[in-house]
Every structure is written in structure tokens, then in C-alpha cells.
Amino acid sequence: MANEQFVSRYRKYGEEQPYWKAGIFKIRLPFVHYKWSVPEMVQAVFMCATCLGAIPVLQEVLGVEYGVALSMVIINGFFYNLHVLLGDPVVPGWITPAIPIITAWLTEGYAMGPDRTKALIAMQLILGLIFLVFGITGIGGKMVHLVPNSVKAGVLMGGGLSAIIGEMGEGGRFWTYPISITVGVLIAYFCLFSPIWANMRRKNKFIDAIGKFGMLPAIIIALILGPIVGELAFPQVQWWPLIKVPEFANIWNQLSPFAIGWPSAATWIAAIPTAIVVYIIAFGDFVTSEELIRSADEVRRDEKIDFNANRSNIISGIRNVAMALCCPYTQTCGPLWAAVTAAVSQRYKEGPKAMESIYSGAGTFRWCTFICVALIPISSLLQSVLPVALSLTLIVQGFICTQLAMNMCRTDIERGICGVMGIILALQGAAWGLAVGLILFFLLFESKKNQEQQAVEQVAVGAPSEHDNQ
Questions:
Q1: DSSP 407
Q2: 186 within domain boundaries
Q3: Model confidence band, residue 222 (pLDDT cutoffs 50, 70, 90)
Q4: Which helix (H) or strand (E) holds 83?
Q5: How many structural domains compose the chain?
Q6: Residue 419 domain flag
């Protein structure tokens, strides 16, 4: 076989990529344990706009200046590299569906300043501890079966609705950049979800190449269109200094609990429901990660891939605790950037000549985004489009979350619980949403036998299938 003739200068056919063992971790460095991947490097140069999209949220919610917010993004970008460095074969990212839930909880419950920052510190520390405890004890892999299906769907529905309401509601970014966001969203939806576009990709290599960059075409169009219609300033590229050195002193004095003080007992208690909801959202990423890696591993027999959900939990916990103690992050630290991991996995399936190892793609991408967000010419070029880029990310996430929530529901009762819980969660916050979802679940509990019977009856009476809806 051709794959056996060309595999890797780092490993033999069918073996795991080399590493330095450190307990549950498997340490891998670029050039030492895996090859640098040029296509992922190029993609990272442009996709760092999504990472920089955290800046306007940090400014609006925490009241920090642009330089401090950019420094926070750079620090967070460094921690992204822990996943591949410690053996996790995925591209990590934000817990994106949770962003509107977290920001609403902070802005509605706490005044701008130290009180709001302390609330975020408490929530992210609790979240980090949940990750760590579940990863160390090994119960993380069992949690997906313990949380009721309707409640998981309701959490996703609430995150999706919150994202759309936050952008399209009163005071949302849409009303400041209506043309840029409208055109950008239409392009993003078309490139990501349209069957027409998918068919075009199969027939045309150039279009297929564009499609591999996910939301990037929408962000580029917004960058060009925004200044033309007067919604965005023309980019002002700053060439010097070349690299942004994080403002560690300002970050410490303004954001660290060691400088501003620790949250009160009441704040710790109030943060628990939100932290639980955020973890439930994040836990779906472990399932997605495992499935993406499994499908890639089935195609590429030349490399054995080891994905460990407990290890991923621990790494995510380390990132969240570190950020909370240094500079609490409204986007939090999630185990997966699904869109990019899927793109890396798809290209990996093309064979060892396309990508030497799964770690080559994931590792190269994350090291490059970390470098790119720290480069002043790149961050200054994208600065004007960051609010629109963030809005596009959240509106696209809203589509994905609501779609996944509906797909998760198997019965009418689950759909009802999902809808009611999602609306309450979006309007009243995580505590109310989680409480209502659990109450409705126990009040309207269905056994698996009843669920299966209902599904059979729906088919028997001619319930519309996915094929009928297309």
C-alpha cells in the first residue's frame, strides 16, 4: 500500500506518534515529535480573527482597555497549546454557546468593576475544579449518561437563543453594523450549511479549497464591505512594534484575585448554577472530539491515535483555573474548536502525504494562532472588524446550538422541555433554566420503553422524516 511506503520519519506504520511520558500526559513538541503542517499554518494566520473576537466582549463586560484585552487573548492563546503539548489530539477553543449565558449573568447581576470580575473569577474557578475532579476521578466519561437528554438539549437551546437574542435584540451589535452582519451571516450560513455549496465543493477544487476555511470567507467579506458602507473604519495597519508584549502588571492589578480580592461567599454560591450549565455545554465537546478522532482513526491505519476524555478534562481544568487566577475570561476555556478540528480531521484522512500526523495539524494550528494574535500588524489589521467577527461567530453558533438541541430530542415531551427550558435559560439565566429543566424532567419523566413506543407510533402515523423536510 502507498500509505505503508510513506508514513512518517517519526514513527513506524500503525504505531502511536512518539512522546515523552508524564503520567496520564504524553508530551509532544513540534519538530521533535511531529512535523510542521504548512496548510494549517496558513489557515491560522486568518482564523486568529476569531480568537481576537474575544476583545470586544472583554472590553464591554469587564471594562478593560484594548491593550489589556489583547494581552488576555495572547495569554489564553498560550494555554491553548497545552492540549497537543500534553497529548490531546484536538484543536481546543472557547465554550462558545456559554458566552451569552455568562455575559448575561454578569451584566445583569453585578456592577462593572471588581464585583463583576470577582463573579467571573468564582464561576471560572468552579468550572475549572469540575473539569479537574471529573478528569482525575474518571467520572467525566460517565456524566453524559447521567444528565437527562432533554436537559442537555435545553442547555444547548438556551445557549443558541441567548446568542441570537444578544446580537439581534435591543442594544445588540446588529443595529450598529446591520449591513456587514447581514451579509456576513448569509455568507457564513451558505458556506457552512447549504447543500448547494456542499455540492459545488464536490465538483470544483477551487470552491472546495475555499470551503475548508469555514467562516473565513464571511469575515473577509465583512472586512472589505464594512468600510465601504461606512459601518467599520478602514484598517490601520501598525507595523511597529512587531510583537505585543502582554501587559502583565495591568492584568495583575485589574483582574487577579490576589490583587483585587477574592469573591464573597454569596458570589461563590451564586456562581455554581452557571458553572454547572457551562460544564454541561462543554461536555458535549468531549463526545464530539471522540467521534471526530474515531472516524479519522478508522481511515488512517498508519497512526494509532489516543484520545482520552479524562486527560482532556484535566487539561481544560488546568486552563480554566490558570486563567481565573491570572485574568478571568468571559469565553472560558473549552476542550474543542469543533469547526477547525473537523477541518483538520478531514484533511488528515487524505493520507500521510497530506498530513503526517493528527498532531501536526492540531499542533501547528494552535501554535500559529498564538503567535499571530501577538503580532501587531495582524491584530491591528483585524481590529476594526472584531465586533462583526464576534457577532458572526455567535449568530452561527446560535444556528448550530438550536439545530443540535432539536436533533437531540426524540419525543414530544423532550422537545417541550427543551423549548421551555431554553427560553427560560435565555431570559432568566442559568439557575432558573437548570431548575425548571430538572423539575419538568422529573414531573414528566418517560421511560425508555415509552420513548421507543412513541417513536414507533410517530413513524406509523406518517410523521415527517428528515428526507421529507428536505
A1: H
A2: no
A3: confident
A4: helix 82-85
A5: 1
A6: no
Q: What are phi and psi of 303, to 5 degrees?
A: -130, 130
pLDDT for res 346:
79
Report helix angle 99-109 to 114-137, nearest 10: 140
CA angle in degrees (0–180, nearest 5) for 140-159-124: 55
Closest residue by Cα to residue 222 from 191, 187, 252: 187
Q: How far apart are CA 158 and CA 181, in angstroms?
A: 22
DSSP string spanning 195-220? Answer: HHHHHHHHH-HHHHHHHTTTTHHHHH
**319/77 Cα distance (integer angstroms):** 10
Q: What is the pLDDT of residues 131-170, one digit of tens each?
A: 999 999 988 767 756 788 898 889 889 888 988 998 998 8
Handedness of CA 275, 278, 282, 284 (dihedral sign): positive
- Cα–Cα distance measured from residue 247 to residue 257, given in angstroms and rounded to the nearest whole number: 17
Contact at 8 Å (CB) between 30 and 367?
A: yes
Supply 27's cell numbers: 508530551
CA torsion through residues 210, 216, 220, 226, sign: positive
**pLDDT, tens digit (0-9, with 9 covering 90-100), for 80-127:** 999 999 999 999 999 988 898 999 999 999 999 999 999 999 999 999
Q: Where are the alpha helices (DSSP H) in 300-351?
A: 309-326, 338-348
Q: What integer pLDDT is reported at residue 456 of this predicted model? A: 61
Parent domain of 287: 2-177+232-411
Distance CA 409, CA 392 (A): 26
Predicted confidence (pLDDT) per residue in 263-303, tens digit: 999 999 999 999 999 998 887 677 677 778 888 888 899 99
Give the other-Cβ count within 10 Å of 176's Cβ. Answer: 14
Note whether residue 208 is domain-resident.
no
Beta bridge mates, 15: 303
Using alpha carbons only, how large is the chain's radius of gyration in Å? 22
Write out the H or E segment, with its range, that includes residue 253.
helix 248-255
Residue type, 253: N
- 3 state SS of 20: strand
Cis preceding linkage at 387, omega within 30: no
Would you say residue 453 lies in a domain? no
Q: Which among 140, 435, 116 has a CA at the least distance from the CA of 273? A: 435
C-alpha to C-alpha distance for 393 and 412, rounded to whole angstroms: 30
The pTM for the full model equals: 0.84
**Crossing angle of the two packed helices 338-348 and 358-373, in degrees rounded to 10:** 140
CA of residue 276 relative to chain centroid, distance: 17
